[in-house]
Amino acid sequence: MHDFSFKRGKLYCENISVASLVKKHGSPLYIYSHATLTRNFGLLDNALSPVDHTLHFAVKASSNLGVLRTLANAGSGFDIVSGGELQRVIAAGGDSTKCVFAGVGKTEEDIELALKKGIYAFSAESEPELVRINKIARRLKKKAPIAVRVNPNVDAKTHAKITTGTYDNKFGIAFEEIEGVYERAARLKNLYLRGIQMHIGSQLTDVGPFEKAVRKVAPLAKRLTEKHGIEFFSLGGGVGIVYEPALASGDAKWWCSTKRKTLLTPARYAAKLMPLLKPLGLRILIEPGRFIAGNAGILVTRVEYVKQTGVKNFVIVDAAMNDLARPSLYDSYHEIVPLTQKPGDHLKKNQVSSDVVGPICESSDYFCKNRMLPKVGESDFLALLSAGAYGFVMASNYNARPYPAEVLVKGSRAEIVRKRQPVKQLWASETVPKWLK
Ligand code: LLP
Fold first, then answer.
1. Residue 79 CB–ligand 1 contact under 6 Å
2. N or C: which end of the chain has fewer CB within 10 A?
3. What is the pLDDT of residue 163?
4. What's the rounded mean pLDDT across residues 33-44?
5. Is residue 361 among the annotated active site residues?
6. Mutate to test the pocket of ligand 1, among 202, 210, 269 (most ligand atoms within 8 A of CB)
7. Rounded to two decimals, what is the model's pTM?
8. Of 225, 367, 325, 228, which Cα lies nearest the Cα of 284?
């Protein structure tokens, strides 16, 4: 469910026409819906209500200050993976004491910052990291709150590049070794063992792997509670979303269906997991990114040219893989719709098999291949849906392309939450050595 829908043939974000936003702010343009962000947060929050719980939005999914403030206002804590993300949370008005800090390569600077800002817990991913955190905490005369990340060796059955909970992955500490690690960590004087954490992967569309992992880790969490007095169990993130519309044949409104066929709902997730978790009596944390932000954002792009080669119909747009990397990195699907829906657009006879591609000089610069789309021409606009998570945050300046602008919509209000990057900023921190005449 999201808040992008067609009204009288025009695409709207909540109560604002998307065309009016690109007219004002230019293209390419990311647009986020406040209503979708807060609704998705509420759905998860509600599903976990049978247990003491907290939600920690994964900042890596969407880190714009406007998005972070929206979620902070909704009561969210945050899952961070760098000192930079911690500073973003603080800049957005988020609470550093509600942050959990994951990542296999935490630097000394990042650990020191996190300790000074009083984060809720580190999700430590190795023994050398525990030793490092202990050393820095001793220097700062603090006790560092720790959860060790357990790698339960459960296949999340998702894309290989976003699977994190098997022994092929660099994350966490092997299930069989974890109790020994807690024993040794308990002897480090400046650590305080507060919880246990796991995260088996992203974009899971089946509750099965979550259930398998929780069944495996819950008894361990119980033992750790008895031995070390831990107070929480974090399940990580990973709840998937539906990217592809349900193509109901003969349905004139097949595209941009606000109600999509959902595979893994918060209710289904909770129905399976709550009975396993409740008896533990621990606080349950989750770290959702994609579920909250994925369907809450779109990327709008202008058609620059249509190039027919006899073999292909290339729709060349002004956004590229540097603005939205997911299709080129993971072959991911993003629904693509024109901003204006004409009668009969949904009929096959009015559609053409298209490759929507960007201007970057790489063949991996595409948003879809051989997809049936309504015919579009120069200066038409297209929206790439479900681009709210891992969209802008993964953008780069490749090909000297400035970052696009971002807009946050709430009801009938829209605000630019990130200005389009000025071109000169691309080389503002560079210098030409004096000795290069
Ligand atoms: N917690 C930890 C420790 C994580 O590593 C992640 C995501 C999350 C939570 C949030 O997971 P989510 O709820 O969003 O699935 N760039 C990829 C996704 C990478 C996910 C990395 N870790 C993509 O575009 O699909």
1. yes
2. C
3. 83
4. 98
5. yes
6. 202
7. 0.96
8. 225
- Give residue limits of the domains in the chain: 48-287, 295-427
255 confidence band (pLDDT: 50, 70, 90): very low
**Average pLDDT over every residue of 340-369:** 94
- 48: Cβ below 6 Å to ligand 1? no
Ligand 1 pocket residue status of 334, Cβ below 6 Å: no
* Whether the predicted pLDDT of 250 surpasses 60: no
Cα 299 to Cα 277: distance, rounded to the nearest angstrom: 38
With 50 as the cut, is the pLDDT of residue 253 above it? no
Radius of gyration for the alpha carbons in the chain, expressed in angstroms and rounded:
23
Q: Which of 301, 308, 336 is nearest to 322 (CA)?
A: 301
Distance between CA 305 and CA 321 in Å, rounded? 17
**How would residue 261 be classed by pLDDT, with cut points 50, 70 and 90?**
low
Q: Does residue 199's CB lie within 6 angstroms of at least one atom of ligand 1?
A: yes
CA of 325 to the centre of ligand 1 (A): 15
- Which ligand 1 atom is at minimum distance from the Cα of 287? 9
Domain 48-287, CATH number (from 3.20.20.10, 3.20.20.70, 3.40.190.10, 3.40.50.720): 3.20.20.10
Report which ligand 1 atom has the smallest distance to the Cα of 293.
14
pLDDT of residue 157: 83
Separate counts of helices (H) and strands (E) for the chain: 11, 21
Domain 295-427 class in CATH: mainly beta
